[in-house]
Specification:
α5 runs parallel beside α7 and α21 runs parallel beside α25. The longest helix is centred in the last third of the chain and has 25 residues. By secondary structure, the chain is an alpha/beta fold. The chain starts with 7 loop residues before the first strand and ends with a helix. Helix content is 46%, strand content 17%. The mean pLDDT is 90.
Length: 892
């Protein structure tokens, strides 16, 4: 043993700080044991064993089999029972335990050790024959599904048929003789599916079960969940081999799940569910609808008192809201798991605020516990309370919020529709972990069975999706794809609305209202603002978006795109006139028509942002985007020629066609756009500069204050371009200010969105008051990837096959694009220490990217309005990491 790597640890050897090695479940149970909470005895196979097995294509590392056998022997000695002993049998559970919580995503086997040889002894020791045969049928089903790969419907269909034959609704209504018959049926069906008898040796079953849990790390639902939650694929899972305690031993036994605070609202109140005479999978799988935890006080008073005490003890110990699984066996309480509870964003903010108020944690700790992405949940719509629709049914309000979409009854169908952009609501009898891909793309989830702690509820809450669980009186026909409740029939594709905050279900598309930001949100975001160094601005092109950005805490506009203002129907004739102009004088006449329109647009934005900085990017896209399609315009001219159209009208369309042909490019995004267009047509940047300054002055006169204006010139790759354009813009600005008799500071800078610009940033900085990194285009030009083509093509395969760890357009490519940004920052500041540096690509709202921008030394990030709170939070966490010396860990 001394020469071998250690892969197995007994319960008494573990603790909370061994979580990377023992997984969340193993470390949690060991820590509970260490502090005196009653838990079943166990040993844990480490995450390293799983990782080594995956690296060796499923081959276990040397010594693992022997170490598991030795761990089992020690467990047998401590419990005084032996696996497979026909007189005094030990039964164990084999459960996964990832480092990061993945509820229901991997596999569990309960009651391992029960067999034809031991079932009588199990019943005799319990004084309950029915209980023993119930354990046996459960084991066959779980082992068959998880280890041998038999479809679950094989067993479920047999169980359903028996209940129908006996005229009962629940499996708890089946007696011992029924269950004996069911076991025989299960064994026969299993052997038929396998083409032979499976092993009945419990020690071999144990090894195969451990291997099955290793393999479940790679199952599709686990992969999808990890991808959605940014959990690394190379962490592996631990395996916990735990002495069975039985919640299905009769009416003095139970199983349940509890939270130390309400995971939907964050309120400090009793929250949980339990089932008498059941095993844990019955609760989380939603097979039976459990009872509220408060009712446990009446039927199991001592166990209830012990549970409440333990809940207080665990929250105090971990200093955070806990999610706990428990079993009561013959009145005695055992804890099977504790972990930091998954919660909605609203609950996360309230719990954080309350724990700070209670003196349990600091504000910095509170900020680090909230995932910035979660805040997105609070910024979505709710059902308009003024609606008059009556709900067709109600269920449990398992995850708050409003979901409106087309009814879909199959996870694959939901995934297919959702990926096409359709809004769908997934309706299931109960969800299973295999439905995860459908849940991810759905607006919300509705189940006929299950409770507040069922799989559907836990996963939906973690994703911020509304969920109504255990809806009353609904009948789901998956073959016909219908939901029936009373006289109402909802077919696949019909619109449905869920209120996850009340549990109401509506057979209609209800109107929604904007989100309501509460005091918890405001206060905790205020803590973030006190800590962060990075400024947070918004990308906004109109007054409405600008006002929303300001409401959500934006400290300015970091990117105002002007091209969107050119597309209005009232502007296109003037744009066409400008493009078809044959002389500078004609072109100036055309742009003069556009100027007041641009000024009006700018005034709206500047009014919304008065007192704050606004960065206006001059016209960026190629001119062909404002023109008709080449083929369509050719056909139009041809038709006019054939039909004898008015000569003047025909001449106008011919001139337009000539310009379309002239401006046609094979790769327009790398063609005549941005500064290149401005170099050819200087009338355009001059007009835009005048419109900007006139708007600034108009708002100043009307409002008494105006914006701090920044004018940004896009797509430069040489200082010569910026020097030329700066002169044009500066002269127009100076002329407008002189005419008005005003002296306003105007900054002129550029976007760094081409690799060459980043590499010569020191030279470009001589002519720039600021840089704003356009990381969308910088990523495209650095990687040589067209974003639109890649995301609809090979990028998905690259991500799945691990060629790329993440989508470089969603989170910045630190090793490539990031190094260009970092180098440009260093060069720019060396040339001009006072230069202002920001980023205005959508990476500005991605938490991981924000951390990188903080470490790189940027002054601000800019993102879409609804991502402003996420950026504020991420910037605070980056500052706290830096203060705690943790920032370097992200670069490893």
């Amino acid at each position: 043993m001394s020469d071998q790597h250690r892969y197995v640890y007994d319960l008494s050897e573990g603790s909370a700080d061994m979580k990377p090695l023992l997984g969340g479940k193993g470390a949690g149970v060991a820590e509970m044991n260490r502090v005196g909470v009653p838990v079943p005895d166990a040993f844990t196979v480490t995450t390293e064993a799983c990782v080594e097995t995956m690296r060796s294509n499923g081959e276990w590392p040397d010594g693992l089999t022997d170490q598991i056998a030795e761990g089992l022997k020690r467990l047998e000695e401590r419990t005084g029972m032996t696996l497979g002993d026909p007189e005094n049998p030990l039964l164990v559970s084999v459960r996964s335990g990832a480092v990061m919580s993945m509820p229901g995503m991997m596999d569990t086997i309960l009651n391992l050790g029960i067999s034809d040889d031991t079932v009588e002894a199990v019943g005799r020791k319990a004084g309950n024959e029915r209980f023993a045969w119930d354990c046996y049928r459960r084991f066959i089903q779980m082992y068959g599904e998880v280890v041998e790969g038999i479809d679950s419907h094989v067993y479920e269909d047999a169980l359903t048929a028996m209940k129908a034959d006996r005229g009962v609704d629940s499996d708890t209504d089946l007696n011992a003789d029924d269950l004996k018959e069911l076991v025989d049926t299960f064994k026969r069906l299993s052997n038929e599916k396998l083409g032979g008898n499976w092993t009945t040796d419990p020690r071999e079953q144990l090894m195969r079960a451990v291997d099955a849990v290793f393999r479940s790390w790679l199952n599709p639902r686990a992969f999808v969940y990890r991808k959605a939650n940014k959990i690394p694929d190379d962490l592996g899972t631990a395996v916990n081999v735990m002495q069975m305690v039985f919640g299905n031993r009769g009416d003095t036994s139970a199983t349940g799940v509890c939270f130390t605070r309400n995971p939907a609202t964050g309120d400090k109140e009793l929250y949980g569910e339990f089932l008498l005479n059941a095993q844990g999978e019955d609760v989380v799988a939603g097979i039976r609808t459990p009872k509220p935890l408060a009712e446990m006080e009446t039927v199991l008073p001592q166990a209830y008192t012990d549970l409440i005490d333990t809940m207080h003890k665990m929250e105090a110990h971990y200093r955070d809201m806990q999610d706990m699984e428990f079993t009561v066996e013959d009145g005695k309480l055992y804890l099977l798991q504790t972990r930091n509870g998954k919660r909605t964003a609203a609950a996360a903010l309230k719990v954080a605020r309350d724990l700070v108020a209670e003196g349990v944690i600091t504000k910095d700790e509170a900020l680090m516990r909230i995932a910035p992405e979660q805040l997105d949940q609070l910024l979505h719509e709710a059902i308009d309370p003024n609606h008059t629709e009556k709900p067709v049914t109600e269920g449990l309000p398992a995850s708050p919020g409003a979901a409106v979409g087309k009814a879909v009854f199959d996870a694959d169908e939901a995934a297919e529709r959702g990926e096409k952009g359709e809004k769908v609501v997934l309706i299931r009898f109960e969800t299973t972990p295999d439905d995860i891909h459908g849940v991810i793309v759905s607006q919300g989830v509705l189940t006929a069975h299950g409770g507040m702690t069922s799989h559907a509820a836990v996963v939906a809450r973690g994703m911020g999706k509304p969920c109504v669980a255990g809806a009353r009186g609904i009948k789901i026909d998956t073959d016909a794809a219908t939901l029936t409740v009373g006289d109402t029939v909802i077919h696949e594709g019909d619109m449905i609305t869920l209120n996850g905050s009340t549990g109401e279900v509506f057979a209609a598309e209800l109107p929604l209202i904007p989100p309501q930001i509460n005091e918890d949100f405001e206060e905790v975001l205020g803590w973030a603002d006190d800590v962060r160094r990075l400024g947070v601005e918004a990308n906004a092109d109109n007054g409405t978006d600008a006002a929303k950005a300001r409401e959500l805490g934006a400290e300015g506009i970091g990117l105002c795109r002007t091209e969107h203002m050119f597309f209005g129907a009232d502007r296109l004739p003037a744009i066409h006139e400008m493009i078809t102009a044959e002389t500078p004088e004609e072109r100036k006449t055309a742009v003069d028509k556009i100027l007041p329109m641009q000024q009006s647009d700018f005034e709206e934005i500047f009014t919304a942002m008065k007192g704050l900085p606004v960065t206006v990017r001059l016209l960026d896209p190629p001119l062909h985007e404002f023109l008709p399609n080449l083929v369509e315009q050719s056909l139009k001219v041809q038709e006019m020629e054939l039909t004898g159209a008015d000569p003047a009208a025909l001449d106008k369309e011919r001139r337009l066609l000539a310009q379309v042909k002239k401006l046609h490019e094979q790769n327009p995004m790398l063609g005549t756009r941005g500064v290149r267009l401005a170099m050819l047509y200087p009338e355009i940047p001059e007009m835009q500069a005048r419109a900007i300054i006139r708007a600034v002055l108009a708002v100043l006169e009307r409002e008494g204050e105006t914006v701090d204006i920044h004018i940004m010139i896009p797509l430069v790759f040489t200082p010569v371009e910026l020097d030329a354009q700066r002169k044009i813009v500066s002269e127009a600005v100076a002329d407008e200010l002189a005419k008005a008799g005003k002296d306003i500071d105007v900054k002129i800078g550029t976007m760094i969105e081409l690799p060459r610009a980043a590499l010569v940033a020191d030279k470009i900085a001589e002519y720039a008051d600021f840089f704003s990194f356009g990381t969308n285009d910088l990523t495209q030009t650095t990687l040589g990837i067209s974003r639109d083509d890649a995301e609809n093509g090979f990028l998905t395969e690259y991500l799945q096959s691990k060629v790329l760890a993440q989508n470089p357009f969603a989170s910045i490519d630190v090793d490539g694009v990031g190094q260009l940004v970092a180098g440009a920052v260093k060069k720019g500041r060396a040339a001009k220490p006072e230069i202002e540096l920001g980023v205005c690509g959508e990476h500005g709202g991605d938490p991981d990217s924000v951390h990188f921008f903080h470490r790189t030394g940027l002054d601000y990030v800019s993102c879409s309005p609804f991502r402003v709170p996420i950026a504020r939070f991420s910037a605070a966490q980056a500052a706290i990491e830096e203060k705690n010396g943790e920032a370097a860990d992200r670069d490893k």
